[in-house]
């Protein structure tokens, strides 16, 4: 195609040059009276053309060969660059054009128009554009440029599919296979680039490109007919689906082959970043999952919502395993933030059932982290982080004025955090089990929020749960610990004196400390009731 376009353009230019020259000779004969055979020396032109072609093609081959060592399928991408292909063919045909002129001269013909076109048009243009073309190639093989090329082609292809399929094209197996193969091939190219890429910037570009492609696909998906989601050999033969044979019918029914591929790619990338201790890139995977979830919520696709909840939980499982194995809390710290953002999106879109499910999952993972922290002490802080995220969710739910029943159910999940029933009871010589001080601080801060909102029934439930610690610590020990926590809340500052991936906001700060006397009264009342019960 590029060769045909270049040849047609050169033929038109040559014919046009000769026609213009013939017209000018007829209208201005004196001006062209001196144009006779032998006036133009073309002996040097073939050597110059060969030099320009050799410089350009030689540089192109060297650059592509070197880039192919780090960028997979770069040759395939180059062969899809029409600008570059047309330029190279124009260069080659320009060199062939001068040889064509030399043959005509040897036969006794004098194509003055062709000579003028080549010597004063094509050759200077080739010389002037050779260096900019080399710079263009050097820029186009940069990893970021390659990612953008793949992204743009996939993006436009999805749009074209929507236009073609929306017109009512009937089911054609070959067209379906080619279409699905093109979509899967683009993701595989990005996955290969991610595996070969050594620079964080390029890897971040790839993760962002996969996320944006998936979001765009979700937007285009309503324009695709149902038969488009039948699994062709291109999908079933892909490496990501080799172990999903039993789920092929479900994937077809749910129309989720592309989403499954993208989630597998992002999940594998997340695991790779965990193992390589690439904390910002691992956090980026969670951030992009939040962006995808927001697009799914805006489209109202419940099937994909269930799928992305599973993916978030899978990422949480990988992060917990990595954190317990390496005594590393940073990845869990970041992923808990993204999980909470996802739950907040569910709250904003009024999805109470899914919100309850995700809060339950987050609480369960928090309890598991608490157990693992006995052998990996760095994870104790993550229990506080999970409690802080649940606190923010409960505050948002309260501000959204959800039903009191739902709020109480969500509050019960937070109160169960760090107190799983499957934990062993303290044995002789063990330190008595009590709720983590950090978790209690966060629960007290939540109680202060409820009191400030004139909703004492929620604060009362928190106090009742807190006083249960007196059974282990003793009433005097519980009161002493409660006073210490009150002092910590009273003097806590909104900013911490150290920085983290999420800034320096103080996890335990509460802006409603003026409600501490009211909280103290609730605790005293419950403790007094407990004392009466014990004395009787």
Question: Sheet bearing the most strands, described?
Answer: 2 strands, antiparallel
Task: Provide the succession of SSEs.
Answer: HHHHHHHHHHHHHHHHHHHHHEEH
In total, how many beta strands?
A: 2
Mean pLDDT equals 86
Principal-axes geometry comes out as elongated
In which order are the strands of the major sheet placed?
1-2
Features of this protein?
single chain, 536 residues, mainly alpha, two-stranded antiparallel sheet, 22 helices, elongated
Protein topology:
Layout: H1 2-27, H2 45-68, H3 74-78, H4 82-106, H5 112-140, H6 143-166, H7 173-196, H8 200-220, H9 233-236, H10 248-254, H11 257-275, H12 279-299, H13 302-326, H14 330-348, H15 352-372, H16 380-399, H17 404-415, H18 437-452, H19 456-467, H20 470-473, H21 475-491, E1 495-500, E2 503-505, H22 516-535
Antiparallel strand pairs: 1-2
